[in-house]
Design a protein that fits this description.
The protein is mainly α. The protein contains seven helices and no strands.
């Protein structure tokens, strides 16, 4: 019974506590980056809030449901790249077509490209929206790339940490099973 309870606790820590901690850490790093570069002052008041909200949704997917189809690292990276590029295009189009038409056009184009390229990662949509709404130019891409790189690095660390924990659990379990019958 004690071993079963211990395995349950270990599984909960491995599957929930560690990912949630790393998710929170990645978001703290992102907030620090946005604050350090005075993103709202540089780009526009409110832009960092939408970008942060987008990454908060992504962090949940990447860390808490890592086996989800939308949580794969390539899909995450492609979706943000597409959203950034289309958001910057929207930055230039908004002066010609107006804000409402540009938002509709860019969000439609982003959604279609995400589906066509098999890059569906819903939180990335808000990046294109933020770039148009707050008129974020290509400079915003740098911030998004840095933030995405931080999240990917922490996610890779999570995968390595969970692998090491699972390896340790298996080693301890197999060591217990190899003990002579009289010593159990």
């Amino acid at each position: 019974m004690a071993r079963s309870a211990m395995n349950s606790i270990t599984r909960r820590i491995r599957n929930h506590v560690i990912p949630a901690t790393l998710m929170a850490l990645s978001l703290v790093v992102l907030v620090y980056i946005l604050n350090y570069v005075n993103y709202d002052i540089t780009v526009g008041i409110g832009a960092s809030a939408i970008i942060f909200a987008s990454f908060a949704g992504s962090a949940f997917l990447l860390f808490m449901v890592p086996r989800s189809r939308t949580a794969s690292i390539p899909r995450f990276a492609k979706s943000y790249a597409i959203s950034c590029v289309l958001g910057v295009i929207g930055y230039y189009v908004v002066g010609i077509a107006g804000i409402y038409a540009t938002v509709a056009l860019i969000l439609f184009a982003t959604a279609m490209l995400l589906v066509i390229t098999d890059s569906e990662h819903p939180p990335a949509m808000s990046i294109a929206f933020a770039f148009v709404l707050f008129r974020v130019s290509y400079v915003g891409i740098i911030t998004v790339v840095v933030a995405a790189a931080v999240m990917i690095a922490i996610r890779v660390f999570l995968e390595k940490a969970v692998y090491i924990i699972e390896e340790d659990i298996e080693r301890v379990g197999s060591a217990r099973n190899r003990r002579p019958a009289g010593r159990r």
